[in-house]
Please model this.
Amino acid sequence: MFSDNPLDGFSPPLSVVIATIEPWPAIKECLDSLLPQARELGAEVIVADGDGHGLPDDRSLEHIVNMRAIGASTYHLRAIGALKAHGKIVGFTEDHCRVSSGWCEEILALHQQYPEAVAIGGPIENGSNAKLLDWVHFLIAKGPFLPPVTPGETTFLSGQANMSFKRHVLPAERSDLDVCQEVYLRKLRKQGWRLSMHTGPVVWHFQSPGVVGACRLHFHNGKTIAGFRRSHLSQLWKTARIASCVILPAFLVGKTIATVFRKRRRRFTLLLGLPFLVLLATCHTLGEFAGYLKGPGNSPRLVN
Model:
C-alpha cells in the first residue's frame, strides 16, 4: 500500500473518500466536479486506488491523498480511506459519479444544521440516460434515491454514491467498516444513532455496463450483500433467507415499480424496460442465493 498525505497533523472541515478499481482516467470527471469546490473549502480528497493506476503517474494531482491497495475491493478501499481521513465530516462518492456544484458546502451545512444525525444522505440522479437498459440498471439499485426524496430521519441512506458521516461514529479499526454500508448503518441504528436523508446535495451517477456487464454487476452485488449479511445471521435466519430467494425476483420487481410510480418519474421508461427489470432482479437473486450459501467470495472485488 502506498500512502502520501500532506495533511497529516491537520483537521480539515471535510474529507471526501473515493474508491476506484479502474485505471485513469475513469475517475477524472468525478475529480473535475469535486476538486475546485474542495480546494475552495480546504477539504481533503482521498482516492483509495485498488488498480494501482487510478491516478496519473505524473503527479499532476499532488493535492490529492493517494492510497494504494492493489487488488482490494471498493469496500476495503473505502474502509482504509475512512481511517486515513482527517476531516470532522467524512463524505463518500464513487469514481463514476459527478457531484453537484456546492456539494461539499451543502454537506457541511447539513451536518451543522442537524447535529443529532451522524450520517446524512442525498439524492442521486441518473447521468447515463440515453439507453433503456441503463435506466433500468439505475432504477433497480438507486430508484429510492432518485429525486424527489423525503427529507428527515430515515432507516436507510443513499449508500457510497452520496453519503457522509460525522467522523466520531466511524470505527477506529478497518475490519469494522470493511463491509457493505447497509450492514454498518444497521449497526449504527441499533446503537441509537440517527440517520437523515435530505433533498440536497445531489450526485449524478454515470454507468452504462451493457447487458452482460449489468447482469454481472447485479449478481455480484447480490452475492456481496448476502455474503456480508450471512456472518450476522443465525442458521435459522440463513435458511429463511435462502428460502426467500424463491420470491425475491418478484419482490424486487414489485418494489422497483412501486418506488418509481410513487415518485411519478420514468414510469413509462420502466414499463418499457420490464424484461430488463426481470432479468436484473433474477441476477441479483442468484447472487444473494450464492452469498447466503457460501459467503461473498471474490464478489466484493467485482462490484464497482
